[in-house]
Amino acid sequence: MSHRPERIAEAIKKEIADLLRNEIKDPRVGFVTITGVEVTKDLCFAKIFISVMGSEDQRAETLSTLQKAAGYMRSEIGRRIKVRHAPEIIFKLDTSLDNGTRIMELLREINRQEEKRP
User: Fold this and answer.
1) Residues 6+ positions from 24 with CB-CB distance below 8 Å
2) Nearest-angstrom CA–CA distance, 97 and 76
3) End-to-end CA distance of the chain
4) Which of 51, 56, 86 has the alpha carbon at shortest distance from 66?
5) Cα(52)–Cα(64) distance, rounded to whole angstroms?
6) Is the pLDDT of residue 13 over 90?
7) For residue 67, what are the contacts with CB-CB under 8 A and spacing of at least 6?
8) Global pTM value
9) What are the structural domains, with CATH classification, of the chain?
10) Which of 15, 31, 71, 113 sits CB 3.0–4.6 Å from 53 for a disulfide?
11) Distance between CA atoms of 49 and 34, rounded to whole angstroms?
């Protein structure tokens, strides 16, 4: 079993983070954190999971802007990690942090209600 997709995913994560930090200067891109990268076994597609700080509108605008810049990022990744065919990049919002925050809020509310009981 090959570990190449995992190695490529890590390399893509590193390079996308570098591109976001140093080259993508669009003001529509908010504070973005890359939470994960999944590459298909055939290395044709890379799903990049991101978390964006801000409102739903800011998240949607950031996601749209990043998807428009995906072609540029794909060519940069192909050049930087030297693969014959750079995978097509698909950005996805990672809502797991939001879900975790919501669960913590619910647990706090349950604890408050339990403390009020006699």
Assistant:
1) 66, 69
2) 29
3) 59
4) 51
5) 12
6) yes
7) 90, 91
8) 0.77
9) 4-116 (3.30.300.20)
10) 31
11) 6
Query: Nearest Cα to 12, choosing from 62, 42, 51, 47?
Result: 47
Number of other residues whose CB lies within 10 A of the CB of residue 19: 16
Q: pLDDT digits over 16-70, tens only?
A: 999 988 888 877 787 888 999 999 998 899 999 998 888 888 888 989 999 999 9
The proportion of the chain whose per-residue pLDDT surpasses 70, expressed as a percent, equals: 98
| Two structure tokens written together for 64 | 């749209």
Please name the helix (run of DSSP H) or strand (run of DSSP E) that holds residue 77, with its range, or none.
Answer: helix 70-81
Between residues 96 and 92, which one has the greater pLDDT?
Answer: 92
Place of tokens 């983070």: 17
Structure token digits, residue 40? 């298909």
Q: How far apart are CA 118 and CA 116, in angstroms?
A: 6
Mean pLDDT estimate for the chain:
87
Would you give the distance in Å from CA 44 to the centre of its chain? 18
Residue that wins the pLDDT comparison between 1 and 71 = 71
